[in-house]
């Protein structure tokens, strides 16, 4: 394996294993910022040793073991003075030396899901919601600040500042590394749900790089959602989020072609959709809707999105999709969230239900929204509707603009193919 290939392997391993490594270290050192530093030290060691020694058979375990040794050294250095003081006091009182604690045994205790503990710790109410989400995304899945910034549609420096301040705040406040008791869990739940949602989205449609999908992130988000549903079985939105992720994940095999190129929803081979995941998703959606009825509450944003996904899942062919129902659900979601991205999605649904000119009118109404300025899907959708109306020159410009805005190589290729078709005066392939 060449050095370049080894570095690629290290990058892939880090993407998959970093969350568990950081979470395990946070349990040891009780400081998420220090845990990330120690994990980065292990990554540097891998970059130094693996090109010469080869990638180990279990690279995740290698990273964890290397980081753990550093963590043990850190803990022992931090505690040495306190131990000496404690031992001195014990000797004064009893005339004997205090027993030496077994640090290694304590560190190996089976204490449950460290990753979920990390999520709840990073979502402590001492932090703002924006800081909670940014910090957890940084810690889970190894997302870069650039990728997080794209997910939030804000500047990279803004995310960097949020992450640094959040780690400092948690350290200064000495926040315990734990899944909080039920009474305290609810206040952190909204941020935890948002974190899981954004992690899944990054895996489902990668913001950057050569791959359209990052399945490990989708799997991790889905796993966390299922665990969370067990912790909060009476919360409708938890089940709504799980329903959404299950149904979205069901399409994974159909979303890329033989060479990794993206296949959009309406062109997907629905026989490749995972029916087990769809059934699980519909069952979770049923739980969410039942809980909402029992409590007299309106459906929340995740339950509404799951209901939209269910409309697609129930359509055996794309032509059977109930687009009018989807447009109505997006209208409810827009009223609830006020999000221009939701309005963009509603425009797509309206165009499918009532014609491209209807969708285009709504898009033109939201085109000047500041949060959509760098959002590549706005010109991509506008280009698609213009092409359907036969306005190929305008559509070409929109597809080119969309390609320039996205950081994902696969998506860029798709958008440029569409732009070239419009330049020839042809309708882009569906």
Protein described:
GO terms for molecular function: DNA binding; sigma factor activity. The chain is mainly alpha-helical. The chain is globular and about 75 Å long. It contains 19 helices and 2 strands. About 4% of the residues have low confidence. Among the domains are: 83 residues, Rna Polymerase Sigma Factor, Chain: A; 121 residues, no CATH class; 56 residues, no CATH class. Strands 1-2 form a two-stranded parallel sheet.
Question: Quick recap of the structure?
Answer:
The protein has 430 residues and is an all-alpha fold. The chain is built from 19 helices and two strands.
Key attributes of the depicted protein:
430 residues, mainly alpha, Rna Polymerase Sigma Factor, Chain: A, 1% strand
Oligomeric assembly: single chain
Main structural class: mainly alpha
> Distance N terminus to C terminus?
40 Å
Helical content band:
over 70%
Number of strands: 2
Largest sheet: 2 strands, parallel
Q: How are the strands of the biggest sheet laid out side by side? A: 1-2
Shape: globular
Domain RNA polymerase sigma factor 70 region 4 type: 120-170
Domain DUF6596: 188-288
InterPro entries: DUF6596, RNA_pol_sigma-70_dom, RNA_pol_sigma70_r2, RNA_pol_sigma70_r4_t2, RNA_pol_sigma_r2, RNA_pol_sigma_r3/r4-like, WH-like_DNA-bd_sf
Pfam families: DUF6596, Sigma70_r2, Sigma70_r4_2
